[in-house]
Specification:
By secondary structure, the chain is α/β, with parallel strands linked by helices. It is built from 7 helices and 6 strands. The protein has helices at residues 3-9, 35-51, 84-88, 93-99, 134-146, 157-166, 180-189; strands spanning 19-20, 28-31, 67-72, 104-110, 116-124, 174-175.
């Protein structure tokens, strides 16, 4: 994984660059998932964040949960969530997602240093994701929540190494400088 590829992973459609990681322990909560699959997801989150050398916690002192993952069979189910507009800051999110025929949506909140403070993930299991292998989906969600990748990523050893490199404590928790890709690539080359 070289610097140009890393730079593309964090470059948004508008051309801006953002690489941010969590600045506080991750406190996950999952809604709408069966117990058997829930255990797989929890194990993937624990393993992934342990590999990144980043702590997880049962609760976040300010919000209770900092990583919220919602599984639904249809986007309309989100309409039953109280204060969804306040939680996301997006009016009529279920209708927007249905209109875009999206199967997933991810939203980050950041602290004053630019680090990830919260991540909300919404997955529509009524479409193509219904066929996803639970283990692969769990790994994907962990990786998608660990850093501000600009698009979808596929779990791999190289991506796990990139996440671990990004959590190096000497690196900034967030940056908008594309040259940061060079620093990450140098850590991967060691």
């Amino acid at each position: 994984m070289d610097a140009p590829l890393i730079e593309r992973l964090f470059t948004r459609p508008d051309g801006s660059f953002l690489c941010a990681r969590w600045g506080r322990p991750v406190a996950p909560v999952v809604f709408g998932l069966a117990d058997g699959s829930l255990d797989i997801l929890r194990a993937a989150l624990r393993a992934g964040y342990a590999h990144a050398r980043h702590p997880m916690d049962e609760t976040d002192p300010e919000t209770g949960a900092s990583l919220m993952i919602f599984f639904v069979r249809d986007w309309a189910e989100l309409s039953d969530l109280p204060d969804l507009d306040r939680l996301t800051g997006i009016a009529d999110l279920p209708a927007r997602l249905a209109g875009q025929q999206a199967d997933r949506y991810r939203l980050f909140r950041f602290d004053e240093a630019g680090a990830i403070r919260a991540c909300l993930m919404f997955l529509n299991m009524g479409g193509p994701l219904a066929e996803a292998h639970p283990g692969v989906l769990a790994e994907t969600l962990m990786m998608q929540s660990a850093l501000t990748f600009s698009g979808e990523v596929t779990p791999s050893a190289a991506l796990a190494a990139l996440i671990r490199a990004a959590y190096d404590p000497v690196l900034p928790v967030a940056t908008t400088q594309p040259a940061h890709a060079l620093r990450l690539a140098a850590r991967l080359a060691v």
